[in-house]
Amino acid sequence: MKNVSFVTLGIIFLFLIGTASASSQYGSIDVYYNDKILPGKEIAKPVLKIGEPFKVRFDFTVNQKCYVAVKLSELGKDNFVIIDGPTLKMEEYYRTIMEENSTEVFEWTVKPTEKWAGGSMPLDFVYQVNELGAGGEILVKGEFTAAYCIISNEHYEGKIPISEEQPVSETESSPTSASTPAFTLVGALSVIALVFALFRR
């Protein structure tokens, strides 16, 4: 029964897969898989283990100042888990205002779950560009497949990304920044002592 489902969904996927890049009069999108650009109509078709992380990146360029909303999308639910990125949930939009002739980089680190082990599942990118202002007109919107993932039955046992393995608190200072005030204080005292000595002369 599961094999029949794979075949049926595979046929559906063939109709849903778009080009791995997009362009219009309002701008363009360049797509990267694991830091490698996907030229033209090429779509990444990786063979992944369950839980194996990969990166998808979208260099989004606009020709005018506008409001942009982007998200990662999937067919069904719980097929992928976002490890890191502008959003941490599938189907959740990230929204921003972009300046004229500017480029914004949207990058996610994602891993497949065991839900479709032994099968295939596309990971899609959805975008919408609106005019600025309340009720701004939709200038362009679209969706395309960034990666068509073939998921094996094996579990990934490699290195866990740092963002998932060792989360760093936003309030925690780095070693460099923590030591900086001490050097600043010593420097300030030295300057004061030098000025005092000059005045005494």
How are the SSEs placed, and which strands pair?
Elements: H1 2-16, E1 22-24, E2 27-33, E3 36-37, E4 47-50, E5 54-62, E6 66-74, E7 80-84, E8 94-98, E9 102-112, E10 120-130, E11 138-155, H2 162-165, H3 175-200
Parallel strand pairs: 4-11
Antiparallel strand pairs: 1-2, 2-3, 2-5, 5-9, 6-8, 6-10, 7-9, 10-11
Whole-number total of structural domains: 1
The level of helicity is 10-25%
CATH superfamily: Immunoglobulins
Largest sheet: 6 strands, antiparallel
Number of continuous helical runs: 3
**Uncertain residue segments:** 1-19, 164-201
Distance between the termini: 96 Å
**Whole-angstrom Rg:** 24 Å
Secondary-structure-based class equals: alpha+beta
Number of strands: 11
SSE string, helix = H, strand = E?
HEEEEEEEEEEEHH
Mean pLDDT: 78
Strand content: 35-45%
- The CATH architecture is Sandwich
CATH fold-level assignment = Immunoglobulin-like
Shape: elongated
The CATH class, by name, is Mainly Beta
Transmembrane segments: 182-199
Keywords: Membrane, Transmembrane, Transmembrane helix
Protein name: Sarcinarray family MAST domain-containing protein
